[in-house]
Amino acid sequence: MPELTGQILAAVGICFTAATLAMIGRVIARKMTKVAWWYEDYFCIVSYVSVIAYNSVVIYWASDWYLGKTIPSTVTAEAKAHILEMSRKLSFAGSHSYGISLGFSKLTVLSLYWRIFKHSAIRIPIIIMMTISAAWICLRIFMITFRCWPVAAYWDKNIPGGACKIPDSAVFFGTVLPHFVMDIVILILPVVEVFKLRLRMGQKFGVAALFVLGAIVCIASVFVLYYSLVADLNSDQLPRDYYSYNFLWGAVESNIAVVSSCLPLLRPLFRLIAGSNAMASYSGQPFSYGTHGHELTAMSRSKREKEPDATSSTHQLADEESIPDSSDLDPNVARNPDRIHTTIKGQSAGSGWSSHTKQDRSIHVRNDVIVEVRNVDQGNQAVDRQK
After folding, report:
1. Which stretches does UniProt call biased (Polar residues) (predicted)?
2. pLDDT exceeds cutoff 50 at 193
3. Engineering a disulfide at 15: which of 28, 171, 254, 255 sits with its beta carbon 3.0 to 4.6 angstroms away?
């Protein structure tokens, strides 16, 4: 098997740089939008700290304990046994930080989903996936820790009575396979809701980048699973033959997972770099659309009229008693009394509400839609009065 120390260090360096830049960008974006930190931000910090621990283990292992390298034949048997023992210790530490980092990356993304889609059809699947992710973290930590008894029997094979009841292949297969399936589900969970949106070209690239990064994490999971099953755990070149590919792809997976969980929050930075028009999700100008049977007109809505819940969409139908006086009708009603008129109240560029939210660049559903139904007969009466 070829030596992989250089590739391992390169993978850690490149991917960790990307993760660090994404984390810094996330903090800057939060300050730009002046949005209070939420659960997803704290989950992301835990994931990032864990990936730092994982990268530190890999770098130390590759630099001093032959990760990805062939142990020279000139090394004495005692020194070689010590190298193998240290490799198992570092694997034990790296496996814990790897699992914690990936688990909290999942919780970060799912918390973001919940904040955006908690009133949509995928709210129940989000809750289910958050529960499964939390359970997966606990299960993996338990299996990694107690696969051997006593625990130190995993790296010290000379402990009297020590035994490993669960082989490494079973541990990795039992935890990495569910982790891969969960990544696929989390990746496709918001697809239907996202494709319902009308996005500009810049936003389409952003969504595509998010799914590409998620796909990279899934592909890396496949490689980790594959090499966990086919590598030789009994090799006398354990750091090269068994651990090298696992920790190489583990570094790619865990670091890119942090980048993927930060990417949706970097929109204010992208707007600053690419310009607001490329990333804008809506226009602040009034809009109007008319058909033979329906007519839509836009009206500004003041900040005072905003409902307390800024994330909800409210649809109100006026009953017969709430129909306004004919003198308040839009002039279009008098000119076209045979049409059904639907008035939509939305934001305009000059409204107080628009200026209030201009500083907030995070993802929120801000606009309420109010449908007012006006009786056509009232419109006819208005025409008669004018005559």
Report:
1. 344-356
2. yes
3. 255
